[in-house]
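sorry for the late reply, my laptop died twice this morning and i had to redo everyting from scratch. anyway the thing you sent over, i finally got around to it. pasting the sequence first so we're on the same page, its 235 residues, then the predicted structure underneath. double check i copied it right bc i was rushing
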Amino acid sequence: GVKQMIVAINKMDEKSVNWSQPRYDEIVKETSSFVKKIGYNPEKINFVPISGWAGDNMLEKSTNLGWYKGVTLLEALDQITEPKRPTDKPLRVPLQDVYKIGGIGTVPVGRVETGILKPGMIVTFAPAALSTEVKSVEMHHVALPEAVPGDNVGFNVKNLSVKDIRRGMVAGDSKNVPPQETESFNAQVIILNHPGTIHAGYAPVLDCHTAHIACKFTEILSKVDRRTGQAVEEV
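ok and here's the structure:
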């Protein structure tokens, strides 16, 4: 889940707020109570008042917020510890789209979630179970020797048309735990708000990365503590 958080309190310039410290303090108090309930320590979170309209306290300190002694939004972002990119895990690239480009061929586009994508690799697309060679990898029209997690890339593939692969499919290294189709899986589900009851047989639409597909809950195994992830009640 989310390990680090910044709370940016926007629209401090709005007429009813007018850069008010009491209104800022009120929002900090309410938000702190909420984030504490879901397992975060408010003392480790920067609550940054800003005005996106005027740019106040985003890049530089603002005279309109003279009472605020904390960091700017940019400084808060600079304090975030960059997470380790999961390059050691098997390659997974959920496809956002597939293009046919004249003179080049079929170019799937997506973000590398795990692993490393390189030209010359043989990739497998699931659930279609189609494999082919990657001829080139590009990001912002610049050829790359490799793409790592977080990179949004296009990669040219051999002998596949735009009709063979589509948005929602996942590309992986055919030689290192390639992605496969599955009929069932276990999931941890967080229910934010629901008007009815959720039970075995409940049929929601699942959005997983770029996939959008109907599924069905066949069995509810347990209820878990949202702070720790530990089971608190077997169903």
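The first strand starts at residue 6 and ends at 9.
thats about all i looked at so far, will dig more tmrw
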